[in-house]
């Protein structure tokens, strides 16, 4: 006879009780936690339901095309883009997934195929892409590339990912033209990483969850016997080599998220170790998908000295289409720097706004606003049509982003005939030399638009 629950309520109580009994740490209701729904896997490994167990990652054809345009724009400046999507924990550590993952529709074969499809489409479009998932799957038995109770990778996982990135860079023809520096990496001590995820999970568990413990490492160039930390990977060293000499070309710049910014995993230094090239790190914790790369490409450091390689680390579950086409259009314009056509501006007395004539421009153009050193993080563009209609477009920078004072606004989303005028308002006063330029697309970008 087939047994069924008499009521939905009884089923819920039975399920919760069973899962609590199966938990190695007395956890219950993890999947119902609105702040961070999760499930407990094997060996104390926990997975986030909304990201780690997700199988479909929004990566449209338009996003792939924009990334290809960005790659070509950077190439026009002598920089090779290396796109390094961080895979989900589920496809990187599938052996620790619980049977419960199937209740959420998770299928490892489908999840893997979706991940590989993103990489294949990027590669086919000409974007140099790194398959970090394959590298993490090679983890030695007993060594976890991701922390048990956190979604970040350990120093071990960061090392595997860096080696995969290094393989791609070293296979590129331009690598042979760069001066190399040998590095040595030595273990320091085990440390416990801060984990907001573990803190949230612990509130639903009676026993202490595994702490995110990892060996920490120190990377130095061979021959640096002074014992002084040279600050390898620090963005403060941008434009200088590891010995303080002015560099003609920075070999590698790294932009990304907390996966790259956390000093405990040694990620930028692992890249230096495996490539024998200097790495300058511009990653930003909490900058989301665009914070670090926007801060860097709109900076004077990039415009004055583009690197040989730009490594963009970004978790694959970060939706690059979340804010429409504006962020990538801004990156493309900043990367190409084809912005020589200046438009005169009239600055208001309070220096919080300017007006300019933008007639004759179309949707393929982008406005580049150099605020002259303003600390503004918010910019509003009010476009005015020939018949007096108005449309507002806004740029918002997070508090953690660098205040570069440079903003790029695409002329998309306006009227068929474009706009006649624009009024630009800042959240902080313009600097002494505010200027507005028009960035025209490069020939190959114009053909694609």
What would you say this structure looks like, in words?
It is a single chain. By secondary structure, the chain is α/β, with parallel strands linked by helices. The chain folds into two domains: 61-335, no CATH class; 338-448, Jelly Rolls (Sandwich), CATH 2.60.120. Helix content is 27%, strand content 21%. It contains 13 helices and 19 strands. The strands form five sheets. The chain has a six-stranded parallel sheet with strand order 4-3-10-8-9-7, sandwiched between helices. Helix 6 (155-170) runs parallel beside helix 9.
Which key phrases capture this entry?
449 residues; alpha/beta; Jelly Rolls; 2 domains; six-stranded parallel sheet; 13 helices; 27% helix; 21% strand; globular; disordered N terminus
